[in-house]
């Protein structure tokens, strides 16, 4: 098996939902593929938030986790409806597909690592798979899926690298150490 690296590693800031949510996301991706979508690449069940020039350090990741908790408070982060965003990769017109997150972060959330951020993704999508076939994705919107909601989530660096193995393009990734959003404070919780 011959492996060639075609491009340098890319780094992203990602939001990682709790593993219970990731189990539901696996079902989401399976339903879409069973509905007839072809030419897909697997993707970890996480939401890319930003592209980075280099990885964020421990302090920056902790600061971002704390800022995200302040914004969400005791509310759950909801993921519903299909969304497709452009995703940088070896292939042109590569898109990330999955449920859209109902959150919008102000720019100052990323203040700790702002100099390292090269682009912020919009909208935020929990990736279930990568594809080049946007037209087919539009026709799959009728698939009913459960609404997902979660409080437990972490931020991390994700390292991403395209590979060519025996003439086929594939992707390799590694998710760095997770920095969990703090538990909501009791004073923030709704009664």
Provide a short characterization of the protein structure.
19% of the residues lie in helices and 37% in strands. It is of the alpha+beta class and 191 residues long.
Any overview of this molecule?
The termini are far apart. The chain has a single domain (about 5-190), classed as Cyclic Phosphodiesterase, Chain: A (Alpha-Beta Complex), CATH 3.90.1140. About 20% of the residues lie in helices and about 35% in strands. It is built from three helices and twelve strands, in the order ββαββαββββαββββ.
The first-level CATH class name: Alpha Beta
Total domain modules? 1
Please write the string of helix (H) and strand (E) elements: EEHEEHEEEEHEEEE
Helix content: 10-25%
Instruction: Name the beta content range.
Output: 35-45%
Count of DSSP helices?
3
Give the CA-based shape.
globular
Which architecture per CATH? Alpha-Beta Complex
Spatial extent as radius of gyration: 17 Å
Amino- and carboxy-terminal Cα gap: 59 Å
Overall mean pLDDT stands at 80
| CATH fold node name | Cyclic Phosphodiesterase, Chain: A
Q: Describe the biggest sheet?
A: 7 strands, antiparallel
């Amino acid at each position: 098996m011959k492996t060639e690296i075609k491009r340098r590693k890319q780094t992203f800031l990602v939001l990682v939902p709790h593993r219970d949510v990731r189990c539901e996301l696996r079902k989401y991706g399976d339903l879409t593929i069973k509905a007839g979508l072809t030419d897909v690449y697997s993707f970890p069940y996480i939401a890319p938030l930003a592209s980075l020039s280099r990885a964020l350090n421990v302090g920056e990741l902790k600061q971002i986790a704390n800022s995200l908790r302040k914004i969400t408070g005791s509310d759950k982060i909801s993921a519903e409806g299909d969304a497709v965003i452009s995703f940088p990769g070896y292939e042109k017109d590569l898109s990330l597909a999955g449920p859209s997150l109902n959150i919008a972060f102000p720019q100052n959330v990323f203040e700790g690592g702002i100099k390292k951020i090269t682009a912020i993704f919009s909208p935020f999508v929990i990736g279930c798979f990568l594809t080049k076939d946007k037209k087919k994705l539009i026709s799959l919107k009728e698939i009913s899926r459960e609404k997902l909601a979660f409080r437990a989530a972490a931020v991390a660096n994700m390292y991403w690298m395209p590979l060519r193995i025996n003439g086929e393009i594939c992707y390799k990734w590694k998710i760095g150490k997770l920095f969990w959003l703090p538990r909501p404070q009791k004073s923030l919780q709704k009664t």
